[in-house]
Amino acid sequence: MPLRSPGKAGEWLRWKGLFYILLVRYFWYIEMSSMPDDGQIAAKRVRLSREQRQRQLLDVAWRLAREEGTDALTLPRMAEEAGVTKPVIYDHFGTRNGLLTALYQDFDAQQTAVIDAALEAREPTLEGTARVIASSYVECVLVQGREIPGVLAGLAGSPELEAVKRDYQLVFIEKCRKALAPFTGQKGILQSGFWAMLGAADALSHAAATGEITVEQAQAELYEVIVAMVARSRG
């Protein structure tokens, strides 16, 4: 087999090397051109509405409170966990108390929705109504486990919490008054009776959440409180 001359062999190797260089550059160009630039990436990002962002931030806050306790709920930490800038967090909550108040309001909204649905589907008797109020209240507190006591402790004595909590309590009392009205005496249930019921509901629910009593014990005891309250109204 005849050998290539050194000149021709060198030229062939040079062209072969150039070909590989061009081939590599070609595939690099194809790969890079198929990658979106920063503008394209930004355009593809879904922009959350204010309500959606609020929901996202509250979910992050509940997770943090559940995993690390409410002491971890600082606004800078929230920004880090949610992957947003600090101004976004401050715009939504303003202060740490604002964040804790928003969590309590979120809990109230969930509790109200659960109780409303349960009352709508209840058996229309005193026993059925009392059972629904007792079981729904306890279950709603248990959904958030130990987070709610931590939120309340973090807001202890704050005007924000007192206003929000009292508004919710009054709404809940009126909801119970309306649901129990068909089974009460002519004068109805005294306001003091409902406040006593609400105090018992909170104490029993938190005792169940911390494991001091069982869920069934808390619900059964609250059921008895409600039935006894109605019985007293009948004289």
Automatic annotation (TrEMBL):
SUPFAM superfamilies: Homeodomain-like. GO terms for molecular function: DNA-binding transcription factor activity; transcription cis-regulatory region binding. Keywords: DNA-binding. Residues 51-111 form the HTH tetR-type domain. Residues 74-93 bind DNA. The keyword DNA-binding applies. It comes from the Bacteria. PANTHER family: HTH-TYPE TRANSCRIPTIONAL REGULATOR RUTR (PTHR30055), HTH-TYPE TRANSCRIPTIONAL REGULATOR UIDR (PTHR30055:SF223). This is TetR family transcriptional regulator. It comes from Shinella granuli.
